[in-house]
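ESCALATION

Customer reports they have been waiting on this structure for their group meeting. Please prioritize. Original submission:
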Amino acid sequence: MNKNIYWESFGIFFKIGAFTIGGGYAMIPLIENEIVTKRQWLKSEEFIDLLAIAQSAPGVLAVNIAIFIGYKLRGIRGSLVTTLGTVLPSFLIILAIALFFYSFKENPVVERLFKGIRPGVVALIAAPTFTMARSAQINRYTIWIPIVSALLIWLLGVSPIWIILGAGVGGFLWYRFGRQQSHTP
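Update from on-call: job pushed to the front of the queue and completed.
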């Protein structure tokens, strides 16, 4: 990593924060491309682990992933730099929109523009889902886990917090007891 890692990481997260529509999930493939693929600051497995932690932590996903990546790269300072890079564009854009919103909120062109953006946002959210599934090594034996989780949340209204806690306990128990039994002769 170079001496200007702070400026470079700030620039990466500022650019992604400024030009990504759709929130944290839409940012994931862009962050992964910049941090893992282009600069190779993290390995793909590390990125997936940080992403899982960021999703489990309370708060906004984009900010959480920026905090964890920044911390992994350069500790507390790196965390502050990447977080500022992520948050500052949205803050400035929202401030500008708030100043001028009333003058264009009823504009039919603006309404159509936002309706046209929606399918693109859905695609930006779907793409990292498939990438993460591949990286998490989801296969025909484990595909039931995300499907059952989604159905529990969607159909039965189970809080995602319970799903995350249950998955954590299940994973712990599997690695603690299940793997030991499968490795004994």
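Sent to customer with the following note: Helices lie at 5-19, 24-38, 44-56, 61-104, 108-135, 144-154, 160-183.
Escalation resolved.
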